[in-house]
Amino acid sequence: MLMGLILRILSHMFISKFINSATQIFSEVIHRYRSSLAGVLKILTVAIFSLFYTNAYAAQQSEQSVLDIDKIILEHRLLTAQLKMSSDLSSVDFLLSKLNKCPDLLSPSQKIRLSILQGNRLILIGEFTQAQLLFEKLAHQTLPLESLARLLYFRAIIAQHDFDYETAFIYLNRLDQLDHSVLPLISQFDILTLATSLYSKANAMDEALGYAHKAMALANKSKQDILVCQAWTGLNAIYQKQNNFDKLKIAVTQAINVCTTADETLSLANAYVSLAAWYQYSEMPIQQQQWLQLAIELFMTQDSAISVAKTQLLLARSLLQSEQLNGADAALNLALTIIEDSNNPHDLMDAYEVKAMWLEKMGLLDDAMFYFKQYLNARKNSNDIKKITNIAYLQTHFDSKVNRQSMEISHAERDILALKKQNQYLQNWVMLLLALLGLSLTIFTFTFYRRKRDISLFEDESKDELTGLYKQEYGFSLMKKAIVDAKDNHQSLSVIMCDVDAMTAINDSYSHDVGDILLRTVAQRINAMLGDRHLAIRISGDAFMLAINGFSKLEMNPLLGDIHSCFDDVVVNGKVVRVSCSSGWGYIKIGEHSNVEDVLDSLVEQSKHAMLCAKQHNRGKWLHFSDCSELSLNRFDDMSIMSVKNTSIDYL
Length: 652
Fold this sequence. Notes:
The protein is mainly alpha-helical. Helices cover about 75% and strands about 5% of the residues. Strand 2 (about 535-540) and strand 3 (about 545-550) form a beta hairpin. Helix 15 packs antiparallel against helix 16 (about 345-360).
């Protein structure tokens, strides 16, 4: 606005100077011809011509200056709308209404930029199909580099929304091939945030974190609070996914300060959600629920229904864990309808799990089982999408390498044609180059399909579908790695085997569905108590094996007491069922020259023998291997535990 005012002042100064010059000429003519009638006529003619020309010129200059000022203001508004689009649609709506009244003010490049802004607006209000149609029309035009970059970016956003990750990665690769140095800073920043999001969804966290740090550096360089706010929001998402809560607390604090200053409502609300995650990790549920409520209020001001629903779901889970069942039910009902309409498998999985947990606590086990099965279906769909994302990521990297090889082959063939006439000897080297390129292509193809197979095997074989604990084969491979770590750190390792008492009677009395709920509840409690430091494995139907790293013998008894408490107060058909387990454990302080397989075999045998002793002579309690006397255990010898010698997973 200040620049426009300066231009208007300069234009008026120029017009005033011209009028003064015309007035001086008119005075000189009067002085020269004032003595004759002919002179009077000439004076009148010159006066009329001067006044007409002066007014016409002044009007032309004034109109041109206003037009120039409008173009400057328009350019400023285009940049402002592009920057604040995610948090302020009103600026875009105002710009569109203004330009509909005077479309001639736009240059061809500005018309393209405005169309892209319209597409961005459609994405933000959820009209992805209309946005795609608009972008397809623009794709057939010859676009400036800046507009091409924005078009590719938004088409990648739409592909990501449609779970078409292969197309999204293709657009990202095309963006990487552009010369970023000539792009506006906002476009460079958006490309980096897009890469951060896609690599994070593909679980390529190192690459995602690298792009997030690049985005932060660019935002700090721009000195624009809006970009710095969005950069911190991206880092929050990565730290939260990595469970890096120490860095998350620092990043959330920075995000809240900057986003408050920048008046970035959506980013500020997301920062509140991340802060609530930190309070959940710190076991401070009241503070967690307060920040989730604040986030919901901010999301509601932006009419972001799906964000409100996701946050309501987080609030319902927190209230459920705090035994506030009525509040959890209210938050869950508000979220479930919106999430079911969105049909997003990731969100559906979380919603059905919370619903099943709530029904279980209310004693409605039949309804809980229905939603648990819905949860399993949604989880399968979610895993399928994760596989698609990972495969798209691998395929994109594979394709980029193949493209580079194809270019090298083309260059080699061009060199062959040029050198054929010069020296026959050089053809042998060219053929060798082609052979090496073909071999490289074969190796990349083999690597891609092997990686694809490994991803599928890992998803199917690593976790038990009912309990969420590790399956036996994969769990033993992790136990081997734990032995190696304990050996390197001169630590001890203990193995506990737990077996549910009277599981057959529970299944016969209440049904196998109730037995499944019992096993899942106990497994989740044990897994939550042990955390990431220790391992929990499902050995058979009602038997679990736990690997405890770094605990002394004196520390094991309190831990075993906590494990046995996980079997207390299990609700079946609205009643507390008395259920217990018998446990045995073995302990080894691993020496420098210990053999991994021998150590694991010994620990497994010790824990198994001790558990069988407890089962026969001290049911519902736990025994250490050294406490077992020479007793007859023949009736328990049919327990099947896979030999660790059969594991084939590389654990080093």
